[in-house]
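TL;DR need structure tokens for one chain.
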Amino acid sequence: MPDFNELIPAAFQRQKFAIARLISLFEDPRPEAALQRKKVLDSMQSSGQSRRGLFLGFTGTPGAGKSTLVGELANRFISDAPDKCLAVLAVDPSSHVSGGSILGDRTRVRFSHGDDRLYFRSQASDQELGGISRTTFSVLRLLYHLFDVIIVETVGIGQSEIEIQQTADRVFLLLQPMAGDQIQFMKAGIMEIPDCFIINKSDEKEAAERTFHALRASLQLIRPGEARVPIFRTSAITGMGLADLLDYLKNLMDGRDDPVSLDASLYRREVYYFEKWVKDELGRSGLRMLSDLGGSRDLMDRAGGFDGAQKAILEAVQHSLTRLESQVDSLLEKS
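>> reply
TL;DR here they are.
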């Protein structure tokens, strides 16, 4: 396996080829890739150049206009903030028949090819539930060090697919006018998750107004006692409401000035996704083994982080299999 650490200086300069090569490492499911990922992240963390990016999740039903809105918002953010850089990680649905994915969100997000402050990457969902792919968080751990803002655009999701809550610092749920009445909003489990709501395509003014009031009324019942949840009315076509959304984003960034708390927040996500990885790869037996090894936090601390813990538990599984194979051979010899 090549030495990916050689790509780090170019990645910090936002050279897209170097970033793409590193992302391929963070999407690599092979056990030997885990140790290389750990080396890359350790180098980035100690470089003094980490940007500690803000994760924003944009989710919603198909047709709500996520890709068009994300593209317009990203371009305006870069234009207004010349010292900042932004990446978009867009997850597209995979076919249950062929397993392939069109990766069509790229056609709707239009960036200037000459601007290295904007970066776009598509991922196939690989039929994962929850709106993101099984490697999305792994890639985010890399982009965290390279960009100030990382937007995760999920697959168009339904009422109960809420994995983005565990991924993003702020979750935006996009709706479109006439997306449902008050009862329909109350039925949707995802309504309890977002930090903000966006009624996109609000240039359809009358329909957007009705949807706004239905949504506001339902939130009073779904999330009682909370401070009023922001609801933005936008149109990616006319630019309506985008200035207010950008102001909200800038205020979020102004509040992120403590590197220690930012790294701690990323660590909490790593614990969640490490346990999820163990369950996906090894099932209940893997979770029992993880418990025997001291639990996620203890193992990650002893192994030097997410990737070291992956390597450790895979080696533990291999050791158990070797021991089991030896026991089976011994029993066969006795018989």
